Amino acid sequence: MTRLTCALGPDSAGTLLHRFVEAPTTRLDVAVYEVGPSYGWMFPRAVERGVRVRLLLDGHAGDNRGCLDELRRAAERGIHVPCRVRRHDGLREAHWKLIVADGDRLAVGTGNLINRDAPADRHGRLPPDSEPLTGTREWWAFVDGAPTLAVAARSRITAVWRESVPPPPVWAVEEVPGIPPVGSPQPSVPPLTVELSPRRLQLATDARAVRTAIETALEAPARRCLLTVPYIHTWAHQVRPLVDRLAELRRGGTDVRVLLGVPPAGGDTATLRERDIPARVMNPGRCTTGHAKGMVVDRSVLLMSANWSAAGLGASFETALRVDDAVATAYFAEAFERDWALADAT
């Protein structure tokens, strides 16, 4: 059997990510949009332990600059961490959040390896023993005992690695967008571990495959469809059919709700209202800013790195894990309901 651990950020996901990165004995492949210094120091440590590491980042600076500073300092000590970046090609970004460890373990989630998205308890404790952590709302899944999934994920990382380049010595100056505040959600929820057949897990590793996974989940009539995303670009041609399908399901009696991380633009608000799709925005004063990308449809849950945008569901490198398990799905559905109860109307 395969073991699946479900976790929320900031509650426990960051602490489990630290454990996940520190545990491998042979190989560690990390394909993440952004890695900051709060995680960057861990990869030289892994190399020192004899682990074969590959770190694949998106080709932008941001927090990646701090991670690369950690790698350069390690190189000065003779510890070299193989690292490449995927240069941008139009709207195509390396936006995935995918980690593969040893031969049969992987982690798929919604946030970056930075302190804002994945804070960790400094003593390695989990709720209820840890203090509440401050960070964005994230959904993560940790899979142990799934060699077929691990091989597929590593194969995809290898393909992108071959077309990527070493990090540039100097990054272009980037405009830093406004960053919403974050809070400490209450209660702080412990992770959940279940055993299930690996056939109940399906992995997607690019934006089009993620969109197909969403379309498949929405095909049949359903009792509920709970979607959480930071934002939703209803005007994007990759997104419009999905919004129309949500509206169709709602007209058929499905409990359809959309939980956003930030207030939508006026046109997106109007579209959701015209389609009669209930939407709320997470309130960082009562909970935290939403950064999770997930969807609960009846007894299945889909965890995604992809935003509902032209890039996220069109051309970028993204990851999604579909879990067909009632207990795991209930864990994330209950998290959605708690956040929905504290959110603001659009």
Corresponding CATH architecture of the largest domain: 2-Layer Sandwich
Number of domains: 2
CATH fold group of the largest domain: Endonuclease, Chain A
Low-confidence runs = none
The helix-strand sequence is EHEHHEHEEEEHEEHEHEHEEEEHE
Strand arrangement, major sheet: 4-3-2-5-6-7-1-8
Distance between the termini: 43 Å
CA gyration radius, whole angstroms = 19 Å
Mean pLDDT, nearest integer? 96
| Portion in helices | 25-40%
What this model shows, in words?
With 346 residues, the chain is α+β, with helices and mostly antiparallel strands. It has two domains: 2-162, Endonuclease, Chain A, CATH 3.30.870.10; 201-345, Endonuclease, Chain A, CATH 3.30.870. Helices cover 29% and strands 24% of the residues. The strands form two sheets. Strands 4-3-2-5-6-7-1-8 form an eight-stranded mixed sheet, with helices on both faces. Helix 6 (207-219) packs parallel to helix 7. The longest helix is centred in the last third of the chain and has 17 residues, at 326-342. It is globular.
